[in-house]
Design goal:
single chain, mainly alpha, Cytochrome Bc1 Complex, Chain D, domain 2, two-stranded antiparallel sheet, 14 helices, about 5% strand, globular, binds heme C
Length: about 500
């Protein structure tokens, strides 16, 4: 991430902490300010309804016209709704013309279940070799916001998103002023009290983010109504293709962790974890971070957004040299080390947290939800891939050449002396410690990612299975409310 974007985000991190502290004060002040007759309706349902209205409110950006939903559109599975931009750029366009985000738009669906950040180290999860650290938790591709409430403070103030910026800093004042004049002001008063706009700016801003987070924790965004959920409940039969996809995804005959091994294992569930039955939510992510060796996205316009005069807070000072270190950009500074800490100046162990290039494992629920079959969705943190087939083919063949050779990404020059041509460009961040299965061990020997030995048909079956993860296959899942009750905020 560029230094100037980092500077802005750094400001917001501090603001995030402030508003969290202020939130409690704001809430109690609002209670005291209430005349009994006009008691605010701060029930969860009212808060979620308000949050929905705010999520779609296009008057809170600078210039006006961009809402959260402008980038996180329900019809695209709460991701970017412009097929052409997705195809060509892979990242999102901002409220200001000619500005883009550095990264692609992740889904907001099921984000209610992402554990609180900052990413913390776990020893020995299923996906990690013994003794290896796995980081869990936090919002954004690199976990740089702790909670949904804190996350919501960022897009309003990001120059490349909703752009409420003044005097070289993100400006909650600007957001709050717009909110007070917006169509959402009246519903906002109904939830937070008639005098809410008399509160200090930071308290109002905190309430705004609180309502957005409440919406994000509503059943609308985590309905658990895919064909796969119906299958888990014994109410649907998977097609032979979908069933084969489930078997490959999990490596077992019945798709359950304890099941008999299937003839092949694509090892997907190691990171995109699911549960054996409906007693626990299958989130299709273990909420951890990994570097799977995704190539850079050469058509990301962020590479060319290098003009400090037009965008002093959000330009990319590195130009074509921009490298997204993901977790390595956030976790090392958190430990008072330089971003991407390696070599001299480090503790001498290089990328010792294996953080560089690691990004959060996204859920694959609704990964195929799109408004029409020909609508393009971009995949991965930088939007480099444009179809699920391409994603699966990448997992299958990352370490292969067109001559069938397997190369080792930890070799000093992995591409030296090859007879064939590598099927994929090199990883954006080829950290020898962080890239999953950098050596390219075959999946039958336990290798995750890179050399899965799948046929073309089997790749299609994995896609078919992921297509069965689109919500809306049946109207309501009786378990959803109970799953969500466990993750409601304060
Ligand atoms: C200009 C497009 C844009 C707008 C507008 C926008 N977002 Fe995002 N959103 C993104 C991008 C890009 C990311 C990933 C950024 C990153 O990881 O650094 C993201 C990430 C998120 C995440 C993190 C999801 C996860 O899996 O960690 C949440 C939650 C979210 N946005 C909610 C919102 C809310 C709430 C709003 C409105 C206040 C909003 N977004 C407005 C583009 C946008
Ligand atoms: C080592 C952990 C790991 C394994 C194993 C794994 N994934 Fe992933 N998956 C990730 C990470 C991390 C990302 C995001 C990578 C990025 O943005 O560069 C991702 C991204 C994806 C995406 C894109 C989602 C999006 O929102 O852009 C899909 C689809 C996907 N994986 C499917 C699969 C399938 C199918 C398999 C099995 C063949 C699999 N994954 C195996 C970690 C893993």
């Amino acid at each position: 991430m560029s230094r100037s974007v980092r500077a802005v985000l750094g400001t917001s991190v501090v603001l995030g902490a402030l508003v969290t502290a202020a939130a409690a004060q704001g809430a109690s002040a609002a209670r005291f300010a209430q005349p009994a007759a006009a008691a605010a309706d701060s029930s969860r349902a009212a808060m979620q309804d308000l949050g929905r209205q705010l999520f779609f409110d296009t008057t809170l950006s600078q210039p006006v016209g961009q809402s959260c939903a402008s980038c996180h559109a329900p019809a695209a599975g709460f991701r970017f709704p412009d097929s052409k931009v997705n195809q060509v750029f892979g990242v999102a366009t901002g409220a200001v013309a000619n500005r883009v985000t550095a990264r692609s738009v992740p889904t907001v669906m099921y984000s209610a279940f992402i554990p609180k950040g900052p990413p913390f180290a776990h020893l020995q999860l299923a996906a990690a070799p013994p003794g290896e650290l796995l980081f869990i938790g936090g919002m954004f591709w690199d976990g740089h916001a702790a909670t949904l409430e804190e996350q919501a403070t960022f897009p309003f103030q990001n120059p490349n998103e909703m752009n409420n910026v003044a005097h070289g800093m993100g400006s909650p004042e600007q957001v709050v002023r717009k909110l007070a004049a917006s169509p959402s002001a009246e519903p906002f008063r109904r939830v937070f009290g008639v005098h809410v706009f008399g509160l200090p700016t930071h308290a109002i801003f905190a309430d705004l983010c609180k309502a957005l987070a409440a919406y994000e924790r509503s059943e609308e965004l985590s309905p658990f109504t895919s064909k796969f959920d119906a299958y888990l409940m014994g109410r649907a039969t998977l097609t032979p293709e979908e069933l084969d996809g489930l078997r490959l995804f999990t490596g077992t005959v019945d798709g359950k962790s304890s099941g008999e091994p299937w003839v092949k294992n694509a090892q997907c569930a190691a990171c995109h974890g699911l549960e054996d039955d409906m007693s626990l939510p299958s989130l299709f992510t273990r909420e951890c971070y990994a570097n799977i060796g995704t190539p850079r996205n050469p058509t990301n316009p962020f590479y060319f957004m290098t003009d400090p005069a037009s965008n002093p807070l959000g330009f990319n000072p590195d130009g074509l040299d921009f490298v997204d270190l993901g977790l390595g950009d956030f976790l090392y500074p958190l430990n008072e080390l330089p971003p991407g800490n390696e070599g001299p100046g480090s503790d001498g162990n290089g990328d010792w947290l294996a953080a560089n290039g690691s990004v959060k494992v996204p859920t694959v629920r609704n990964v195929d939800l799109r408004p029409s079959p020909d609508f393009v969705k971009p995949y991965m943190h930088n939007g480099v891939f444009k179809s699920l087939k391409e994603v699966v083919h990448f997992y299958n063949t990352r370490n292969l050449t067109d001559a069938g050779e397997v190369f080792d990404l930890t070799a000093p020059d992995p591409y030296a002396g090859l007879l064939g041509t590598p099927l994929w460009p090199p990883p954006e961040v080829n950290s020898p410690t962080a890239v999953a299965n950098a050596q390219g061990f075959p999946a039958i020997e336990g290798g995750l990612v890179g050399n899965l030995g799948l046929t073309d048909e089997e790749e299609d079956h994995l896609v078919a299975f992921m297509q069965a993860l689109t919500d809306g296959w049946f109207p309501k899942n009786p378990h959803a409310a109970e799953f969500l009750a466990a993750v409601q905020g304060p």
